[in-house]
Q: What sequence folds into this?
């Protein structure tokens, strides 16, 4: 049973509980989200497997719960190794934002801690994703405008909160 810390809207820990119960009750808890960017400036996106919340859509390559007692940076390193096989990387904290939705029978009420990871390591997907692709920022912006269903809700949310209108 995985425990997560329940936090308030100011990201202060107010308790801990099993992750499944946090989702069942819609309790706010932390999740790390990361964009992976290579030295060409391309962004890695992964296509979700059929058993995941955004099945068949491209999403942020790293996204996972911060376990109770774990630091955000520790969770970022663990989730990055698990989900895309990258172990040695530089990263930057981008920001925090609350993402709340009901999907696949659960209430996701996540405090997204968003990062950028900089790496050229080979990608090794786990069973949460079926494919990956590198995109330029301008490709992403064009595809979001012309084919928004290509991307999952969480990706749209992060893009709109941190990257939309900020193309370099």
A:
């Amino acid at each position: 049973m995985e425990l997560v810390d329940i936090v308030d809207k100011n990201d202060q820990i107010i308790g801990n509980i099993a992750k499944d119960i946090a989702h069942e009750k819609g309790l706010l808890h932390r999740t790390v989200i990361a964009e992976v960017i290579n030295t060409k400036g391309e962004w890695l996106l992964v296509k979700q497997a059929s058993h995941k919340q955004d099945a068949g859509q491209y999403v942020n390559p790293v996204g996972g719960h911060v376990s109770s007692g774990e630091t955000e940076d520790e969770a970022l390193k663990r989730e990055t190794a698990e989900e895309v096989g990258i172990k040695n990387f530089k990263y930057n904290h981008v920001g925090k934002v609350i993402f709340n939705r009901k999907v696949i029978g659960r209430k996701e009420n996540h405090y997204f801690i968003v990062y950028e990871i900089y790496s050229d390591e080979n990608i090794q997907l786990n069973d949460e994703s079926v494919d990956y692709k590198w995109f330029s920022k301008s490709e992403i912006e064009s595809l979001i405008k012309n084919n928004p269903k290509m991307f999952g809700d969480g990706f749209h949310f992060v893009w709109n909160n941190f990257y939309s209108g900020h193309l370099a």
In short: The radius of gyration is 15 Å.
